[in-house]
Amino acid sequence: MSGGVLVLGEIGDDGLRPSTLELIAAGLELADGGAGRVAVALIGADAPAHVQAVSVAGVEEVILAAPERERFEAHVWEAALGALIEARRPAVVLAGHTADSLGFAPAVAARLRLGFASDVTWVAWEQGGPLARRGAYGERLIAELDFPAKETVLLLLRPGACGARADADAGAGGTGASARISRVELDLDGVARTERIELREAPAGEVDIAKADFLLSIGRGVGGGERIGELERLARLMGATLSGSGPLVEAGLLSRARKVGQSGRTVAPRVYLALGISGAAPHVAGMSKARTIIAVNSDPGARIFDVAHYGAVADLFEVAAELERQLS
User: Fold this and answer.
1) Which residues does 25 contact at the CB level (< 8 Å), separation at least 6?
2) What is the DSSP letter of 63?
3) What was the pLDDT predicted at 65?
4) Residues linked to residue 297 through DSSP beta bridges, in sequence order
5) Neighbour count for residue 6 (Cβ, 10 Å)
6) Integer angstrom CA distances of residue 9 from 107, 266, 270, 276, 278
7) In the chain, what is the straight-line distance between the N-terminal and C-terminal CA atoms, in Å?
8) What is the C-alpha separation between 278 and 271, in angstroms, rounded?
9) Strand (E) positions, the chain?
10) How many helices (H) and strands (E) in the chain?
11) What is the pTM of this model?
12) Most distant CA pair in the chain: distance in Å?
């Protein structure tokens, strides 16, 4: 497989992680742009059980590497990915920007002298190579990166930044296209073992805004926070999950788990209702994949209107009060 795109699937204790289909979608977009064929690598003792889920339209090959290890071990995955890259020489390798991948992917990139970028929020194939975007200068800017001197580029994509394509959903349902299956043997002699990995559970009851279909998101326009309770009540009435922009989180008015943006969560709900959000670039990068964006802001020049599908120049609390009256 000289050239092309190699997608590294990720398998957790509860099965194939949803970010894998997002990575496949990004890989297929690169292939559409001219990067070459797409292959998916699954590493792990139970990798064969997930072949059907990743055999979606456009994926030509599924590569299975099944080390005799019950759980993820960074050193093993590092050895496996490095061997695959050396054998296949793909133009682009896509993996998730996750705790697992961060434990081994940078080491692979350093050892093999690959092009590398982490926390990537956008990728495309342009002028014969990959072009990636990620936050820079404390998320105040968006950096655009290319890798003109690198045969292979390894990119870690932020989960949620690239939604799964409609045709990529077919594999999960068992109706995906048939992909060629390859199996590779891993030489793990001398590879260190991880003695123990402890995972800390998220606090009970903490919200996961990345899974919400409807987000009511609030920004600096709400003021000092004394009226946030009104907007929380409105979110419950509308069946929405409350989220917010960076300034509210940094001021301690919202928990960090509710932060949307490059330094928070990347979200792609069906509906994103933005109240009092100006639309700074780091925030927009975290929510621009929403299917329908509705913005309310008293400033007609607010940048949020540049990405909104529907907008109203109005006082957000007047709009909120009217919505509550309609729903009560």
Assistant:
1) 162, 163, 164, 165, 168
2) E
3) 85
4) 313
5) 26
6) 18, 19, 25, 38, 36
7) 60
8) 18
9) 5-8, 11-12, 15-16, 38-43, 59-65, 92-96, 115-120, 122-126, 129-136, 141-146, 153-157, 180-184, 214-218, 241-244, 271-275, 292-297, 310-313
10) 9, 17
11) 0.65
12) 68
User: Chain-centre distance of CA 54, in angstroms?
Assistant: 17
Token couple for 290: 């929403």
DSSP 224: T
**How confident is the model at residue 140, as a pLDDT?**
74
Answer whether 5's CB lies under 8 Å from 94's CB: yes
213 token code pair = 């279909």
Q: Which of 44, 168, 157, 26 lies closest to 96 in space, CA to CA?
A: 157
The alpha carbon of 47 is separated from its chain's Cα centroid by a whole number of angstroms, namely: 22
How many Å apart are CA 43 and CA 40, to the nearest integer?
A: 10
Question: Considering only CA atoms, which of 97, 68, 91, 92 is closest in space to residue 80?
Answer: 68
**Residue 72: what pLDDT?**
77
The total number of residues shown for the chain amounts to 328
Residue whose pair of structure tokens reads 């700074």 in the numeric block: 280
DSSP-assigned states of every residue in 117-176: EEEE-EEEEETTEEEEEEEETTTTEEEEEE-TT-S-EEEEEPTTSSPPPGGGSTGGGT-P
Task: State both tokens at 182.
Answer: 């390859």
C-alpha 281/C-alpha 59 separation (Å) is 33
Q: Which residues contact 193 (CB under 8 A, 6 or more apart)?
A: 69, 73, 75, 76
Q: What is the mean pLDDT of each run of 10 residues along the chain (328 residues)?
A: 86 85 94 94 88 90 80 84 93 93 94 95 92 82 90 93 59 57 74 48 67 94 88 94 92 92 88 95 89 95 94 95 90
Please answer whether residues 278 and 219 qualify as being in contact, where contact means their C-beta atoms are separated by less than 8 angstroms: yes
